[in-house]
Amino acid sequence: MNPLTGYLLLSALIFSVGLAGALTRRSAILVLIGIELMLNAANLNFIAFWRYGPNPAALTGIMFAIFSISIAAAEAAVGLGIILAAYRHSQTTELDQMNSMKG
Amino acid sequence: MTVTFLILAALTLAGTVAAMAMRNLIHCVLALTLGFAGLAALYLLLGAQFVGFTQVLVYVGAVAILAVFVIMMTQSAGPAMQPIFSSFWMTGSVVAAAVFVVLAWAICRSGFASQVLPPPVEAAVHPIGDALMHGYVLPLEIMGLLLTAAMIGAVVLAMHEKRRTP
Hints:
A: 103 residues, mainly alpha, Helix Hairpins, 3 helices, B: mainly alpha, 6 helices, 70% helix
């Protein structure tokens, strides 16, 4: 097994952990954190493919990872703002108690 | 597959799994910080210094602090009394495990394992800044616009609604 495979497997593991957290936790904050973990797994893939790819001098993977980190920061800020607004509305951050939109 | 990689991978995985499995939300964020720091160290190990330090600044610095602030403001700190997992946790875990199995199968079946690897490279900061200022200047400007819009949107969302006086 060469290093690239190791990085890809680690990234797949982090993605699965984040997905499991986003799907199973009840707290909205931890669901958002799970999504952040999935984004981080994608970033690790970008960097690993840049490092072991055929043309590392082009810096494409680095650029994509930098922009992806910026997008993730904006997403975290807006997501946490939404959680605050929802908390002010329903006095809870537990997802299965925010059911006032159900018919 | 060096010892450094194995240690950092174990640290990162331990941090992320603990972040998703602990009861106290503050402990979750602390474990998450460990996971993010491990990822930053992995970026440094891969030779991407700029991305590694960006990861430390953005994730370990900003996102974790933001999450702690929201946990404090929503008073959800402290151990949860109710179950921390939702009622369909079994389905969610099965879906996540299935995703991992498919990804691992695809990685092992691909030609990466037998590929000849290029010599190590280092991405110095100078060519990155050069590329950001020449080839990627339009995406950079759009990113600045997006971050401004996101900041304004987050402030508007989190602002107190005005009480209407009759």
